[in-house]
Structures are given as C-alpha cells and as structure tokens.
Amino acid sequence: MRRRGIDLRLWVPLGVLVLTIVACFVGPMLLGPEAGQQALGERLAPPAWLPGAIDGRPLGTDAFGRDMLTRTLEGGQVSLQVGFGAATGAVLVGMVLGLVAGYWGGWCDRVIMAGADIWLAFPFLVIALAAVAVVGSDIPVLIVLLTLGGWVLPTRVTRTIALRVRSEDYVVAAAGAGASDLYLVRRHVLPQVLPANLVVWSFTVGALVVIEGALSFLGLGVKPPTASWGNIIADGTPYLQTAWWIVAWPALMIVVTVICANALGNALRGRWNAGADVIDKEVVP
Amino acid sequence: MTEMTEGVVASVDPGATAPPSAGRGRRGRRARRLGAMTVRLLLTLLGLLTLLFFLVRLSGDPAGVLAGPSATPQQLEAVRAGLGLDEPLLAQYAAFLGDVVRLDFGTSVFSGESALGTALGALPATLVLLVTTMLVSVAVGIPCGVLLDRGGRVTRAVVGTSMTLAQAVPTFVLGILLIYLFAVRLGWLPAFGSGTAATLVMPTLALATFAIARTARMVAAELEQVEDQDFLRTAAAKGASTRRVLWRHALPNAFPAVAAALVVEISYLISGAVVVEVLFAYDGIGKELVDAIFARDYPVVQACVFVIGVFVVVVNVVGDGLLRALDPRIARARA
Amino acid sequence: MSPVIALEGLAKGYDIAGGARLTAVDDVSLTIAAGETYALVGESGCGKSTLARMAAMLTAPDAGQVSWSGQTVSQQRRSAVRAVRDHTQFVFQDPAAALSPRLTVEEAVSEPLRIRRRTGSRSVADLLDDVGLDRSMGRRYPRELSGGQRQRVVIARALALEPKLLVLDEPVASLDVSVQAQVLNLLADLQAEHGLAYLLIAHDLAVVSSVADRIGVMYLGQIVEEGPAGDVVTTPRHPYTQMLIASVPAFVPGERGERPRVVGDPASPTERRTGCAFATRCAFATQVCLDVAPPRRELGDVAVRCHHAS
Amino acid sequence: GGGDGDADAKSVDDASVTIGSTAISNSLDPAAALSSVGRTYTKQVFDQLVTFDEDGEIAASLATEWERVDDTTVDFTLRKDVTFSSGAALDAAAVVANVERVLSGDPAYATVAGRIATVKEASEVSPEVVRVVTSTPDAILLNRMTLLDIVDPATFDADRPAGTGPFQVTGYEAGTSIELTRFDDSWRATDSVKDLTIQAIPNPATLSSALRTGEVDVAYGLPADVATQLEGSGFTNVHKPAGSSAITSLIADVEPALADVRVREAINLAVNREEFVDAVLGGFGTPNGSQLLQKGYLGYDDSLPSYEFDLDRAKSLVSEAGVEGLELPIATTALFKAPAEAVAGYLNAIGFKSEVVVQDLSAFIPTLLMKSEYPLLYWQTDYYDLRDITSVSRFGPTAPGQQAHIPVNEYQDLYASQSGELDEAKREAQIKQMAKILNDEAGVLFLAWTDNLYTVAPRISDLPLSGDSLVRAEAITVSE
Amino acid sequence: MVDRRLARPDDRRHGDLRERARQRAAGPLERRRRRDRQGGGPVTAALEIDDLWVEAGDPDDPLVLVRGVSLTVAAASVVGLVGESGSGKTVTCMASLGLAGRGVRITGGSVRAQGIELVGADERTLMRVRGGVVGTVFQDPLSSLNPLQRIGDQIAEAVMLHHGGRRRSHHARVVELLAKVGVPAPEQRARAYPHELSGGLRQRVAIAMALANDPALLVADEPTTALDVTVQAQVLDVIRSATRDEARSALIVTHDLGLVAEVADRVAVMYAGQIVEEGPVASVFQDPQHPYTRGLLASRPVLAAGRRRLGAMVGRPPLPGSWPAGCAFAPRCPVATGACGEAPPIRTSDQGWSRCWHPGSGETTATSRAEEGAA
Ligand SMILES: Nc1ncnc2c1ncn2[C@@H]1O[C@H](COP(=O)(O)OP(=O)(O)OP(=O)(O)O)[C@@H](O)[C@H]1O
Ligand SMILES: Nc1ncnc2c1ncn2[C@@H]1O[C@H](COP(=O)(O)OP(=O)(O)OP(=O)(O)O)[C@@H](O)[C@H]1O
Ligand SMILES: [Mg+2]
Ligand SMILES: [Mg+2]
C-alpha cells in the first residue's frame, strides 16, 4: 500500500500513536487543571451532542463530574507510560538476555531459555495480582512488573537471531579474520537484532497496555483519583446503562492504541526482512 | 524391473534410521525428557509457591479480617496467635514446605474447609471454560484462518478487520459489552453465575475472541507458509481437488504449529480466565484465587496456585505428547 | 614443492541429541603445497566442511594436528592460531550467506583489515580489480549483485589479508553453469598470479577434474583415495571412486553404454562400525572388509584405503 | 422502612425469592461467619436470646424474660417448645454450649467472640434458665447477646449447623450461593416464602443486570447510582438508617500537620455533605457534620452544630496553617473507593494533594485497628450491630503499639468509663460529652449517616427489615 | 531494456485466450504440426505447448515470465528442457499443468495433454489430467512429500483419486509401484514417513506416485538436482526405465546438460523466458546453432584428466523484468551485431530450430577471460 512514496501502513499507525501520546501529555495542560477536578453537581453529564450536555465537557463527565476528555487523556498518560515504559524495559532486558543466551550459549543459554519456558507456562496475571497487592501500584512498580510480563518474547527473538547470525558464513568469515566477540556482536549481531526487537517492542506495547488495563480493572492499578484507562473503565462499568461514555472513551483509546501498535509492528516487520521469519514464529501477531 | 539390492538402507540424516533397539531407546529418551521437564516445572512450582508465600504474607493479614473492624488490639493479637502468625516467618515457611510435600495445604482461614479441596472444587468449572474456549477458538478460528488466506478480496478484508479488532479489544472490555448486550439489552443470557450451559456462553465468548483471532492468524500464516511447499503441488499434481489439497494436506500440516501455540497459550488463557471469572462471577479457580488473594486466605492462595501449576504442567506434558502424535517429524526434530 | 599446510590424523566428532556420537572426520591426513590445488570430493555429509574448518583453524580437532610450513600449530596458543588464520581464508558455498546484507562491497572487503587494524599492501580497489570487479561496485550492497559477483566479492575479501591458503568450500555449487565457469577460471588466474594454495571442496568430480592438481576422495569421514588428479580420474582404484566416476552423466549422448550399477545409500555417520565404511555398498566386499578397517596403502602416487585395490 | 407495596397486588404463598449480594456469608456456621454480610444468612436460619425490634429496642427472641441478678450477672428464661431444624429441642444446656464454644479461643470464632468479649461464662440454672456472667459490669450485655446465634450443639461440627430460625439450608456452594428452604416447625415460620437463595455476585454491574433479568429479587450492595437508575424501571429501593457513620479518621501520628486544629477544621469545611450524600450515596443517607451517633441511639445530641461546607473559609484556614500542597492520601477498601475518591476531590479543591489508596480488607483492618501509614482513613463505622458507641472501640484508649485516632485524653477516659456505667442516664451524659469534644476538636471528618440499601424487584411488594437493618425473609411479601 | 511491445501485446487482457492465440502469427511448431497432420495422420502428441505466455504480479504492472513458448513432446519420446536459473523452465511446466503458484497467470497460448486442452479448463478436467494423464515429479524429494502421511498412503491417494475406492484397497498396487521404482522391502517401506527415508528413496517414492496411474506423460522438474552424485545416477536409472522401457513420454526439466544427454531424445534450450533452440539431443549437442547453447556446452566441466580452462560466457542470465529488447542473449553474445537489437527470426532445420540472427556461425563462443564484473 505504498502511495506516492509514503508507506501508509507504517505512517498511519505511527502517526496515530504519536498523536495519542502528544494529546495525552499536552492535552490536559491545554484544557486546564479545573476540567479534571471533581464537580459532583455536574456528574454524569452526556457528551456534547446529547441533550443535557454541559458546556466545556465535550465528551461528558463521569460520576464525580470530572471532564471525560481530560480524564481520558490523563488516563492515557498512565497507560501509555506503563505500556511504553514496560515494553522498552522488556525489550532491553530481552535483548541482553537473548544475546547472552544466543551468542554465548552454553549453560547461560540453557538457564535463560528454561527460565523463559517456565515463565511463559505460568499465568502472568496471577503473579502480577499477588505482586501488586504487596508492593503497591505506583507507575514505576507497574513498569517493572510489566517488564517482567514481557521479557520472554524479545529474549527468544533475540536469541534465535543471534544464534542464526552467529553461524552465518560472513560472521564465521569475520571470526576467521580474527574478530573479537564484541566486534561480532556490535557489527553483525546487533544490527540484525535491533530491527526485529523494534517490531517486538511495538507488539509488546499493545499487549502491555492491555495487561495494565486488566490490572487496573481488577482494582490493582494506579491510585485514584489518578486515572488510567483500565480504572476509568472499571469505575464506569456500573454506569454502562446510563452513562456509557465513561467506559466508551477509554475503551476506544485502548483499542485504538493496540490496533496501532500491532499495525506498526506488522508494518515494521514487512519493512525489515531480517528476522521476520523469527518474529512470525514467536510473536503473537 | 531392477533388482537393486541395497545393503543397508540408511538415511543420511543422523538419527533418522533407528537401529533395532531404537524403539526402546527412543521411548526411554522420551520418558527421560518428559521426566526432566516435569521435574523442572515442579521445581518452578515450588519456587512460585515460595514467592507467593512471602509476597502474600508481607502484604496483609487474615487475622484482621477474622477479628473484624471493631475488634480490640488484644483480640487481634489473640487471633494471630491462634493462626500461628506470630511465629517467625522462616519457621512458618519451613512448616509450610513440610506440609506442601505432603500435599497438605491446610484449611481455609475463613471457611475452615480444606484448601486443596476448595481449589480442586473450583477447577472443573475453569476446565469446562477452558475446554469450551479451546473448542470454539479452533472451530471458529480455523475457518476464519482459511478465509483469511484463501478468501476473496472482500472476505479477506472483512475477516481481517474482525480479527484485528478481536485482538485489540481487551477481554474485560469485551466482557462488559457482552453483558450489556446479551444480558441487559436482549435478556438472552444470564448475566453471571456458573453451573449451567447458559452461563458458559458469555465467558467463553469473552475468552475465546482473542484466541479465535490468534488461531485464525496462525492458521493463515501457516497456510501461507506451506502454500509454496512442493507437497501441496504434489497433491494437486496427483489430481486432488483444491478443497482436498486444503483440508487433507495443507491444514493438517498447518495444525501442529497452531496446536503447539495453543498449548503454550494455556497460560494466557488462564490469565484471561481470571478476569473473565471475576467479571461474570463464574466460580472457577481464577475467581477463587483472586478472592483468596484479596482476603489473604493464605492456604487457599497456595493451593490454587499449586493446582493451576500442576494443571499447566499436565497440559504441557499431554500437549507435548499430542503434538508428537500429530506430527511424526517432531520426534526427530527435537530429539 | 614445500607443503604450505599439513594435516596429520585429524579427527572430529559431535555429540548429537540422544547421546549418539557422530564421527564427522576420522583420521585424515593430507598436505598441500604452495600453488597447488587440492580438491576434496565426496557426498553430502561425509565431513568435507568439517575438515576444511579444522584446516582453517575455525574448529579445533579432537585429535591430530595442523602444521604450517612444517611448524605444528598449537591450538592452545591464541597467537599461533591467529597467525594461521591470517594465512588461511575461507570461501563459502553460498555467496548470498557469506556477505552481510548490511555492509557494502567495500566495507565487506576491507572488514578483515579493519578487524586486524592493519592496512594491507593492496587497497580495496586493487582487490576488486584482482577479482575482476569494477571499482564502482564498492558502494553497492550484496543484494544489488549477481551470484557470480557476490562470489567474487567473497574471494576479494579472502584475499585482503594476503593468505597463503584459500579454503574453498563448494565455491561454485550454487552458481549457474555459465557463471560457474567464470569463477573457476578466476580462481585459476589468481592462483597463477599469487601462488596461492587451494583446498577446494566439491561434490562434483567433473568440476574438480578441470582445476585440481591432487584429488582426495572422501567417504564417511575418511579419505579413501588420494592422488594426482589425472590418476584418480583415469584409473580410479577405490570402488567408491569408481562408483563416483560412473555416476557422472556422460556428456556426449551415446558415448557410454550401460554403466556399472550404483548400489545403496551412504551409511549413517552415527553408526558404529567395524571394517570398511564402504563395505555396505561395495560390489567387491568380502568378509575381511566387514571385519577389518582397511589401512592407508600407497600404490604409486596414489594412496587408497581398500583391501582389494591394486 | 418497608417496600411501598401495592395494596391491590395479590400476595402469593410459598414463593421463591433470591437475594443477591456482593458477598455472602463465608461459612454456614454463624459463629465463624464474618461481618454483617454473613448475617443476611444467619438471620434467617438462627435466633438469638434477644433481638432488636423494628424500632431498635431490645425484644424477646429465644429468651422471653431476662433479669439482672447483680452488676455482672443476668438470667435468661428460654421460650418453650422451640426446636432446632435438626429436631432437637432448645434448652439451657444448648445455650451454654454455644457460649462456651465461642469463647473457646478458636480464632475462627474471633468476630463473635469479640462482640461478646465481656462475657466470662454461662451456666444452666434450670433447663429453661441460662445464667450469663460478665467479667466486669457491662452496660450493653443485652445488646451483645443479640449477636450470639444459637446453634444446635449436636450440629456444631456438621456441614450444615442447625438453627431455630424459619429457614434451613438445603444447598451450599462456598462463597457463591446458599439455598434455603422453609423450616416449617420453626417458631417464626410463615407461609409466604418457601425457598430462599442467597447469591453472591461481586461485580455490581453484573448484580444490577441480574436484577433486571429477574435472576435476583433483592440486591444488596449495589452502588447508589445504579440503585437510583433502577428506580426508573419499576424497582424499589428499600433503605433504612443503618446506624452507621461515614467518616474519615485524621491521624496526626502519620501527618503531624493534622495536629493543627485549623487543618482538621479546614478538612471538615471542605466537604459539601449534601452534595456528597446526593451524589455518592445516591441520597440514601443523611448528611452529618456533627457526631458519630445518629438519632435514636443512646447519647445522640441534636444540639451539636454541624460543619457546613465553606470553601473560602477552608482555603483560608489552609493558608493560615501554611499547609498548601500537603499530601493527604486516603486509605480505604475497595468497597468505599468511590466515596473516598469524592473526599479526595474535595480536599484537592482546597489545596491539598489527596489520592485514594485502596487496600484489601486484610491489609486495611490492621491499618485501622493498629497502625496506619496513611494519614486519612475512610471507613464507615457500623454501630448498629450493637446499637451502641461501645462498638467503636478504635476511638477508645489505645493499647501499646496502637495509633490514636483521637488523641484527646479526656475523650478516651470518658470512653473507658461509660462502658462500665450501668446507670443509663449517667452513661448518656458521658457519651454526649464525648461527642461534644469530638465536635469541638474536629477530630474526625464526619460525612454522613448512611442507610442500608436493598433494591427490590417489582414482584416483591414488601421487604421488611429488622431493627438491625437485616432482611426478615420469612416476612417478605411476594405479589403476582 | 524490456521490450514493452513484446511483453504486453495490446489485446492480451481482453477476449478469449485461444482465439487470440490463433490470431497471432503461427509459430514454427504450429506450422510443423499442421504439416505432420496432413502427412502422417492424427498422431496425438503427449504434450503440446503452443505459444504459451505466462505472467505474474500485479495485473496492472505484470511481470512477464514466459513469452511464447512452444514445445511438443511426441508420444514415447523424452524431451529435456534446459536452461539456467530463472530462465522460466519451472514456470513453463507448472503453468501448463495449472500448478504454478498464486498470482501466476497464463495470458496466452494453449496446452494440450494427450489432446486435452488445459488452458482455461475447468477444475474437473485438470484433476482428471493431473496424475491420470500427466505424472509429475519435483526437485526436492523431501518437501514434495507430505511429512505427516505414510508414503504408502500418499501413493494410494494418487491411485484412489483416479480409480476411486478407499486408500486401503489399493495396497497391492502401492507395493507393486514401490517395487517397480526399486524401493527395497516395499511392504515395510510403505508404512514409513518421508523423513525416515533417505533422499534417493524419497525421490523414488515421488516417482512411484507420479507413475501411480500409468500416465502417458511424466513431467520431472530437476528430479536429481537435490541428490548426491551417486544417488543421482540411481534415480536417473529409474526415470530411464520408466520412460524408455515403458514407452512413456517425458518432459525433463534440468540445468544439467549431462542428464539430458543421458535420457532425452530431444532438447529445448531456454533463455530469458523463450526457447532459443530445439532439436534432437545428438544434433544440438554436436552442432549447436544458437550461441547460447554453444556457451552452455563450453562452460560445462567434463570429467577428464588434466587442468584446463573452461569456456565461460560473459555476464549472467537476465531475470524477468530486465530482459533486453530484441535478442535477449545479445549483450552476452560474442557474435552479436546490430541486427540483434531486433527480435531474431526462427530458423528451422529438418530436425530442429533456433531463434538467432547468426545461427551456427561461431566456431567457439567462449571467451577466455570473461568478466561480467565490468558489465
Ligand atoms: N556442529 C555440528 N554438530 C553436529 N553435527 C555436525 C556439526 N557439524 C557437522 N555435523 C555433522 O558432521 C557430518 C559432516 O558434516 P560436514 O558439514 O563436514 O559435511 P560435508 O561433507 O561438508 O557435507 P555437505 O556436502 O552437505 O556440505 C554431517 O553428518 C553433519 O551433520
Ligand atoms: N509467482 C511468481 N511471481 C513472480 N516471479 C516469479 C514467480 N514464479 C517464478 N517467478 C520468476 O520467474 C522466473 C523463472 O522462474 P522458474 O522457476 O521457471 O526458473 P527455472 O528456469 O525453473 O530456474 P531454476 O533452475 O532456478 O529452477 C524466475 O526469475 C522467478 O523468480
Ligand atoms: Mg559442506
Ligand atoms: Mg526450476
């Protein structure tokens, strides 16, 4: 779907994601601090196009009379910080572990891969629930926790690529010419691992935004009145009948974010064929 | 025509030909591999239980719940002592380990019933949910995957979009929508509960949607991958119809990879089941576990995690065997 | 001619899954003189590549030793290994896989120099010249080159460190016939120009017969026959060599009539065996072949591992 | 209270009724049941020696008469011809066995044991007369005895302990549902309801859908908003002042700035209580800025002033005290997340920084009772179980290691002395004095007196509640 | 440069394919066949490919893969189709049988197997022809067998698809076929999975499958390329006995001239999507008319004692999409002249034909130091 030299499949999701991020972090500032504050007298006002709407509350208000536009954008700050932060963390951790496992191999490889298998075998949400109940749910905690939820995929992808590149003839040739491990990793392995991990990163963002939502939905996300998409949805659930907009906006944002993250991942995968087959095997598309 | 006598017809591939004793050897190897896998998983289970033991204990206290909000501090202390919670943590842990080895998880702090019994009692409902989810995701996912790969332009676009959406809508959002639609608006299905077929529908749908999309995508990807393989061309060259090539040759070859992924995904499904069970008040082990975590009902938490862990181990072992049955190559590839 | 490299009793095995032991190379000795082309022929999996990697010191042998210009190279001393690696360069079968997709031709050719932090006596442009590539190709990426051009780049890279020995692992197997001839001719020219020694690996006797000085025929990890190319091609002594030659399709129609039957498949390298490895496929095998491993015997210029060859 | 039953609707006998609740009893054994949630069940299956009538007065139940023998001793005379659903007859020995079991020290019975903590022993005077002895004079021993459910001792260890109430258990799924059917020989049995199911539905959204689909007839624990929404569709909200105060403790131990009375006052002025009750409680409660106890409870003082919403004054007090931007996180449990969040909103509006820390009950109760990391604790104090100030023990004197919620010595002394005061007039004066001190000091943030709220399907024309706001299922009227 | 005019005749995307094929100037084969018919009566050739055009990719911007290939495999004769990688050999064969991958379309010409038209035929006809009239063998014997099915079942399926019944009921035939292609212990082998067999055995199984219904024509696409040298010879023997000994026609695709010399009666040389020379093997190999054929023959190493230079052509075969206009071989051709910028005429001889402006003119076309690098 290349048109006029622009790859729409890449730039559209990227554009939407960037727009979402900018809106979430800049939007609330433009809207002013007052909009996000509670005004119990204005509670459950519908969006602007429905009867009973309140001026200056284009997407309606929630059960505390807070502006849904502001809430949704603020909620995005948390969800996106956690999603992007944890995905980045997961990919970094995964690349290091994957390189160690794939390039150096031996018992490191066995230990890391056994760990990965086992980690995948247990339902992460269960572990996360217990962990959050103990250590609380500040944003940094959530990022660390979800990093643990996402490290396996980049580790596996990195390992597979590293393993393959390592035995590639041109790497053998470079080794034959006396190249050090560090040189080989830097010059040959990393350049192949990075693009693949960018793809993984993209998919992971989507997955982790959802997990953050699920944790918040179960009441284990950030502390109210701080918003996150998951806890807005949880709080809005009882109002589904009369004030659907409370659930609708953050749910829409999650769906859009996940779709864009996945689409971005797909586009990137199409762009770099290095490791594409590995990603196809490993990544939840 | 020819009388080509072949001395030893051995394969060039190492290990491909089995010497006479290979039957036993292979079985032995397999048993050893399964054994190693089981031991590894069980050890991890122990690790996980340990982790949970400390996590849960560091964060709350069933004594408070037992004593109630209007108890006096003295009463609270008395309850603690009664539960053995005043002993050093390590002593508690040692006792716990001893009990676990004997499969004695104690009794629920609140109901007084056997913790393991409680966990096991909640398992069948979850199993039913998981099985229906698997069935639905395979039954719907495979045709969708075929359409995704083979359908016309419009079909592909429609199915592709649905699958994209299905993958992007979180389970909890989907669950809420389902309740609203089917229970509140249409009144077709009970909004909650467990035990009847009707109560199974929405949790299954909520849980299966993602799995359907996942299966469909995998089937499509695998079909695309096997598409150019010569054995499909061979089948067509023998005179097989397009349908037959698809259903008899392409899909069966795509299936093992899909099935393998589904087995791995049992843990994702269990995570999803936790959310779904809480949302639909479905009495499975996921809900039991969440309740127990919130209430700090240690014995039940531990028993639930243990049961889930063993379940995962069993699924992996059985799934592994099943895959072997599905694909004669795997035995060699992994050997 | 003084030997550039001498391999003495090299052996290499791999532990494969399931506890079996695979013998890839088993007691192989050979020497290659400067300016000489030693060709190694054999079927897939007989251990040619493994042997080549040991010769280039990319893999340590389980037993045996490698000598350079009469000096035994200790595998333990990194500096010694390095020095040998400088003198030996590898050319791989698949020129597509042998070049990093991320490096330009120039970068690829100069990589060995960069790694060794050396400036070679010859510039990249010279090297490209040597292999008959235009200098302007230096800025291209491998994907912009044809198979033959890629193989030339690989050869240029191999020449960068000015090696004495080139190990060529099936350098033309993946090329089209017309391009294959170009590369073989180029190799011959380079050898004449630089006095290089070649260890050339191939599975096609016809390819080998036109470029080799000596030919070693490998079967299941052992060299079963070795000698001057002409002798091996015209008067094969080992039944396996005879079988190989019989298998080469006659080029001119009707030139050859009914040919000897080729029998059976190669045996598995994992199988433990006594006696001659080829006995299972050999039309002349007798009881002694099954019981006793044939020793290496010199028959004039030719060495053979066969009880019955004469 | 009571549903506004349609006079024309014909009531039916032998009806089946389902009560849905966000949580149900954790155990069939009343002695091991926790909190008021469990009592929706125990009330139907068991009886106590005495109980509260609809007006909150002590009324006869299994005991028809009682007599104070001395400061620490009361004799109860048992009702005649009462049988347990197991078939056994009620006698003094059974009551004694129940008391002894609860006081045995088994942690499983801790909640009930706490409620009757002053009881030292019980003994049989005659088959019809039980003697209860307390360790110290106890002004509210009778109130306490309303919380001791009498179980047939022969069924103490059975799966389904037997009681004397109008229903008996026929099915039980732990944590999920309890199925009851009428015990026809009960002294309380009526004709109207035959089968009763108590169903747990933790998710409020699910609970409300269940009500709409007719899967439950009575819902307990719905958010007020949802309950009001349902009123539009023919459902009735039955609510009754429940003897419980929504309050926020202000713990100076954690945040020293709270030791400044101006800060506490500012907090009290920041909340618009009418708005709070309307919006957060759906109107099911009474705004309260004056005192803990509400009208009808011993020690209520209608002369006490109430803190009124005054944003400007609150802000100026904040700046006077120099505490702008003070961080005041509020800890609470999931149950009270919404009201606590509203309080946080009010506090943020006058310049504090407040957020809600939702803790599990298991973590929160030790916080509440012993030591908190958070300066503000949102909690709803129920005193209706005992109908007395004594049930609010955490405002009393502190034990070692325990934080003071109200660090005023005089208040704590009064608390200690009133509990042993058998003269009701004197006792009332002391309690009023406590309330005045609390009011003057703005010691806690009073928000409202909350109601117990049941949302009832149209087919139920009358939902009678007991004096302690529990459903009297046997008296439910179901219409066609 | 791509010859747009050649690559995209204006009328190609509209109307009936066969009709348009007829409108186009009759090719040499067409003429010859007409002659044959008039003379020796209606001898049905096993396979007649007539002016076949194949393209792939976006229909709005197609990539032409095969342009006007005509080829006849007479009854009981073996034809070798040779050419270098990418010249379109596989596409020609597979498209003829409707087996080319997705996106590959026939845009003109006709293909008849035993007189049955295959271009534009419905699936039933194709199913009947495939396996029944034409048996097919592919290059890689591992990937051309279904890895999940026992080989006996796969062969039985081939029989069943044309003779009905259940797979089980064809067991005897399966064993017979396996024995025929020289699989030892066929009873046991029938129960093996493909991965349990060696490469040579797998290819024999594939051949057995192709022969299952005794087809009149065997199409084999590089049947020995993936095999070891000694095994190649064995498989070649099997193919030879399946054709020569049973008077079966075969079209054998290969880039190995030696193989053609061994098994084929006639040979067609493909270059850049066209056949550039066709004729009896002996005459083509001994007296090649087209300079490309001469180049191929010269560059092929032969088994002989002594080091010698091979005759190498300059450059490399062009890929689809970058075929030069006029004679596609001209840029590499040692005897090219200005005339070669135009499409070369077809020169027929008694036994064959070639597509060249200067046929048979070069003594030796091989340049000694042919360096494509400078190109
Ligand atoms: N790293 C390894 N681990 C296990 N087995 C190996 C390894 N490398 C090679 N082998 C085995 O050793 C044997 C010899 O391999 P080698 O690559 O030397 O053969 P080859 O003669 O080069 O074959 P080909 O012609 O296919 O390249 C083969 O059976 C191969 O499977
Ligand atoms: N589906 C397709 N889409 C685009 N190009 C294709 C397709 N199939 C084949 N080709 C191209 O058509 C050309 C001819 O392919 P073909 O497989 O017929 O070559 P070949 O002569 O059989 O070569 P080889 O000896 O390598 O098998 C190749 O360049 C190939 O890349
Ligand atoms: Mg090799
Ligand atoms: Mg081909």
Briefly summarize what is shown.
The complex is a heteropentamer of chains A (285), B (335), C (310), D (480) and E (375). Chain B is mostly helical and 335 residues long.
Can you describe this structure?
The complex is a heteropentamer of chains A (285), B (335), C (310), D (480) and E (375). Chain A contains 11 helices and 2 strands; from the N terminus they run E-E-H-H-H-H-H-H-H-H-H-H-H. The model of chain A has no long low-confidence stretch (mean pLDDT 82). Chain A is mainly α. Chain A has a two-stranded antiparallel ribbon. Chain A has a domain at 82-221 and 255-282: Orthogonal Bundle (MetI-like fold), CATH 1.10.3720.10. The longest helix of chain A has 37 residues, at 68-104. Chain B is mainly α and 335 residues long. Chain B folds into 2 domains: 35-102; 118-334, MetI-like (MetI-like fold). In chain B, 77% of the residues lie in helices and 0% in strands. The two termini of chain B are 38 Å apart. Chain D is an alpha+beta fold and 480 residues long. Chain D is 27% helix and 25% strand. Chain D contains 13 helices and 20 strands. In chain D, strands 2, 9, 10, 11, 12, 13, 14, 15, 16, 17 and 18 form an 11-stranded mixed beta sheet that branches. In chain D, helix 7 packs antiparallel against helix 9 (311-321) and helix 12 runs antiparallel to helix 13 (424-441). The longest helix of chain D has 18 residues, at 424-441. Chain D starts with 10 loop residues before the first strand and ends with a strand. Chain E is α/β, with parallel strands linked by helices. Chain E has a domain at 4-264: Rossmann fold, CATH 3.40.50. Helices cover 31% and strands 19% of the residues of chain E. Chain E is built from 13 helices and 12 strands. Chain E has an 8-stranded mixed beta sheet with strand order 6-7-8-3-9-10-12-11, with helices on both faces. Residues 1-42 and 363-375 of chain E have low confidence and may be disordered. The chains are: A mainly alpha (285), B mainly alpha (335), C alpha/beta (310), D alpha+beta (480), E alpha/beta (375). Chain A binds chain D through residues 37-38, 40-41, 43-44, 63-66, 133, 136, 219, 223-226, 235, 237-242, and chain D through 203-205, 208, 223, 225-226, 229, 272, 275-276, 278-280, 329, 334, 337-338, 341-342, 344-346, 348-349, 355-358, 360. Residues 89-90, 221-222 of chain E line the site of one magnesium ion.
